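dude i think i finally got it to work??
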Amino acid sequence: MTLLTVFVGLVTGWVALRGLLVHPLLPVWVRTSVFWTLPLGALTWAVIMTADDASLFPDTAPCPRVPMREGVLGGGEVSGISTPFPPRASCRWEDGTVYDRAPGAEFLFWVFFAMTVVPLGAGLWHALREPTSLLR
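look at this
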């Protein structure tokens, strides 16, 4: 079932991209914006997913695996929490406080996501309304 979902997603994306590139009313910069917003969105997603990772820089980790000093926040236990979609990284301390990591990167991700999905939606709409334009 997953393979079918991926296949349908890839075909839909391909038709949307083709429809976007042949859309007669959109300026060139809008038609080509997908080619720079998609990689930047993926890079921003990777930054968010690694924001709570203690293995990259163990001495300055935002969510250290080694407990902090006793008495600061209970026993000092902390754990990193990441969710792939919507992308969010945070640290949950032993006392229940949650600190968001990379909130600016989350905002950038949603900006790049919108700048990718909206033009592709316009391309899919054009491809469905005028399928003969894809035959060029």
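Strands lie at 78-83, 88-93, 98-101.
im so relieved honestly
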